[in-house]
Structures are given as C-alpha cells and as structure tokens.
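Now read the record:
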Amino acid sequence: MKIKKQYEKHPHKKTLALPGVTHIFRPWINVRLINGERKTLYFKALIDSGSDYTIFPADAGRVIGIDIETGPTVEIFGITGDKIGGYFHDIILDVGGYRGKIRGCFVDVSPLKGLGILGTFGFFDRFKVTLNHNKGKIFLEPYDDSD
C-alpha cells in the first residue's frame, strides 16, 4: 500500500536572508492516534527526519485516555539545547489507512499544542519515506514486517 500526500503551503515572513520567499512548504500530514476501541484523535504531524522520536502533546494522550506520567521517561534535547521530559506509551498510529502499533512519546510543551512530530522511532522505522520537495509530494510505503 503506497500513500501519496501533498506538502502544505504556509506564509513566510519576508526577511533580508530570503527576500523573495513569501511561502514555505512543509511535510505535514494528518494522522490518527488510537488507544483502545473508541479512543481516537485526529491530528496533524510534521514529518521530521531529525527527530529521534515520534512526539505528541501530552494533552492529546490524555484525550485518548492515557495516564501520561506513568510511562517510561526520556530526556529530549531540541535545537536550542534545552531539555524537556517525555513519557512513552504504546498507541496505534493510523496514517492513510495503515495502522501500526508504535511507542509514542508524549510531552508537555506549549509549541506542540495540537501538532505532532513524526520521527525515527515510531514513523521512519515503519515507513519508507520519500520527500520530493521540488514537486511538493510525500510518498509513504509501510515496510513489510516479514522482511
């Protein structure tokens, strides 16, 4: 099963560094977080090959019934070097109709309100990912678990 998505177009503030750039295109996709039979949440997430983990806001986990602080912990360091704490929980991630169990990381960080990050563990280890920035296309193909 191959999944094809489009990059999203977002306004870009004019800067001296990139004076002619008025928009930027980002690889955002819609996903669904599932925890049990009826606990689901539709979500927007950024495909980010620089992220070690697949990360969601703690509030999203709470909405689908996860007791966030009971999960195994990890320290995450961002581009600024600041550290935040994360909690891992097993969830089902639905991407374009493909569902798979992942270990997602949930964090209490305000910049993530309503958005997720699809990183190495939980996303890139589940999908062959092709990002064609020039054409604004995202191609995803689940890995065959039998390989």
User: Anything to note?
Assistant: The chain is about 5% helix and 50% strand. The helical segments are 58-63.
